[in-house]
Amino acid sequence: MILPIVAYGDPVLKKKGIDINKDYPELDALLENMFDTMYNAFGVGLAAPQIGLPIRVFIVDTMPFSEDEDLTEAEQTALNGFKRVFINAKILKEEGNEWAFNEGCLSIPDVREDVFRKPQITLEYFDENFESHTEVFDGLIARVIQHEYDHIEGVLFTDKLSALKKRLIKGRLANISKGKINVEYRMRFPDQKKKR
Questions:
Q1: Per DSSP, what are the bridge partners of residue 126?
Q2: Is 148 marked active-site?
């Protein structure tokens, strides 16, 4: 089932998510709905707060990035096969020199800005079967994970921008929160009166 994506300005996007356990009600259905919702919006990641749930769950499928012709064949192959569920994730380490990449967010449509992140992370998480993993990720996969991880920490990519950039996009963000935007996927706006 395709769910509406929560728009910028909704308080749930600023809440730190809470851990869940393997008895979380209808987790399989939730994950399936999250993948349906993400694919419908042509995203590469989606966090539970973006569908209104302040829990520490996010999903990633980097396949769309694999079509980038600027990447090496090895990078394209890695991105094409990377689809994961992350539950109760915790970043243990971020390493390397920060690099900029133009990021966007399904909750903040039509706003894209360069965000600086470290290229390698060590992450502890549970998968959809509640099996524990500790893994190192790098490059674009690490970046997508960091972006989604920020969502379960109550942080948006716009929070990482300079004061000047924030001022420049302030009006656009206000319009998104009021529902004054055309999007190709279902959204839920903070005023609750306007759904698409």
A1: 87, 132
A2: yes
The domain limits of the chain are: 5-188
Fold of 5-188: Peptide Deformylase (3.90.45)
In the chain, count H helices and then E strands. Answer: 4, 9
Cα angle 129, 134, 135 (rounded to 5 degrees) comes to 110
- Residue 192 has a pLDDT of 57
CA distances from 94 to 30, 56, 138, 164 (A): 29, 19, 10, 26
Say which of 69, 75, 98, 148 is annotated catalytic: 148
pLDDT tens-digit profile of 108-160? 999 999 999 999 999 999 999 999 999 999 999 999 999 999 999 999 999 99
Contact 179, 191 (CB under 8 A): yes
Residue 55's contacts (CB-CB under 8 Å, 6 or more residues apart) are: 17, 18, 19, 20, 24, 48, 49, 152
3 state SS of 78: helix
In whole angstroms, how large is the CA radius of gyration of the chain? 16
